[in-house]
Structure formats: structure tokens, C-alpha cells
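Good morning,

Both structures are done.
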Amino acid sequence: MKFSASRRDLVLASLFTALPFDLSGAAASPINPTETIIKLPAELQWKANPANPPRSVESCVLTGDPTAPGLYYTLVRWWPGYMSAPHTYTTDRFCMVLSGIWWCNSGADFDPAACVPAPAGSHVRRVAGTPHYDGVIRSHNEPAIIAICGVGPVNYKLSDPSKPGWREV
């Protein structure tokens, strides 16, 4: 069976999709803030790590706790000119780049020039127990915001604990 739509059919179909489903005139129920929790961007609580330079990296825990057992979901904002030092986690992390370009690499040898750009929309999986590092190179104008999900505790461990957990690049 072959289906052929006329221009009139397409116009009518688009008009019908714009109509509300409930034609009875009944009002929709209001949102229940205990069931659907919305935080607007201005309500997110970004926190800097006091051990890091100002405007280098900030985090915003949305749910859970990366240092405690269980599921967590957090945002990380890397500012241009800073990267993490090589480190590992004991659990996988699943990352989505929401904005900017996140520069990533694997290995315990810190080499920012070898990093791979992950632009907004990219998915990055950090495999448990593997050393890696990331951040935003200095030549970029905007920070990268990354959404990270995983199961805690992550047990963050620096590859070289004699050096700080961040690097200026």
C-alpha cells in the first residue's frame, strides 16, 4: 500500500497536532513540586574547590554524592586555562558535554597538546581505574560545562600525589 499525502493533508495534520488533547475545557492539574523538582540555572549552587585557583573548576551536585555509595549526578564547569592532573576513579563515569569544548586525554603522562576536543553534545565515558585528565585550554573564550553521572564512591586518586590536582595550561 502506497501512502501519498497532499499539501492539504499535511496542513490539516499540522493544525490537528497543535490542538489540545482534552477538548472538554478542563484545566490541567498544576505541577506538584514534590514530584517534579525544577531548578532554574540561577538556582544551581556552583561550588569551587578551595584547594584550586579561583575560576579554574567548579562543581554543582544535582543529586547524590560522588564520595558516598549510590548514584550521583553532578555538573562540572572548567574555565579556560585549567585542566585536572592525571587521576583515576574506582567506578565508571558517564559524561555529557553540555556547552563549550572539553579537552580530554588518557594516561598518567600530562600532555595537554595531545588532548582530544569533545564539543558540546559529546559523550565521554571514563573507564574505572584508568588514568586520565581534562579541562579547557587557554585559547578558548568560554568554559566547558559537563554533566557527569556514575555510582559512588568514585575514590578520586591522583597519579602523582606529590603534585596538585589541577594544572594551569
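Second structure follows.
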Amino acid sequence: MASRTVGTGLIAWLVAGLLVIGAWPPAMEAAAHEPSQPGSASDARVRLDLKPDQREAIKLTMREHLETLEAIVAALGRQDYRKAADIAHLELGFPKHHEAMQREQGAALPKRYQELAIEHHQAAETLAEAIATHEMTPILRQLENTIRACTACHKAYRL
């Protein structure tokens, strides 16, 4: 029962953190409709200049990342380490990166955005490896690193 409470608590903190940084889909949608004011104090993130279908593809990928983090935390809460590791690898790791690249139809993304994406997917691969240890301290540290990789991109770019 305690592990389920830990998993539920982790999910609540994750969602709260994503709301604060503006990475939750409704917040992302609101940011996408704000007038672009480069360098403004209210939002200094770089606006990605994309075609509407590419923008929607990236939004879908971001929502999938959030759902995947939720699924990983839920599996960890059930102590289903194998499932959590598989999800981390398949849905956040490099297989998902390759799928997202195809979906985004060759969007011209800045070099730093691409580097942040690679860092995110690498962090997810390392998370999958940490999950295989069944040791919660390294797992949580790497989950933090994976989420930090997500937030780094959301802090730098907007749609």
C-alpha cells in the first residue's frame, strides 16, 4: 500500500511541476496563442516557426511524453519494474525519438532543440537502465534527470 501512495504522490508532484513550467498541454496551447514578443520579460522562450501540421505533431509528442511519465510512475508504484523499464525505453527513449522525427515531417528545428531532444531520449534510456536495478534511489534520481531534460526544452522553446 505504501508503494501505491508513493507512486500517486510522485504523479501529483510531476503534474504540479509541469503546470508550473507551462509544459502541461493546456498551458502549452495557451502559450501557442500568445503574441510572440521575443525578449519580453513574460516569455523569453524561442518560438518555433513551424507549419501547423508540424506544430500539431510536436504537441502530440509532448502529450505522449507526459502520458509516458505518468505510466512509468504508475508502474513503479506497482513495483512492476520490467514494465516501467520497457515503457521508459520504448516510449521515451530512442525508438520514440525516431518515431517523432518521422511524424514531424522534417521540421526545421534549431540545433539546440535537437540537442535537447537527444539529451532527453538519452536520459530516458539511462532511466530504463536504472529501473532494472529495482533500487528506488537511483531510479528516482534518473527520473528527476529525465524530467529535467524535458523541462530544459520547455524552458527554452515554445510553439
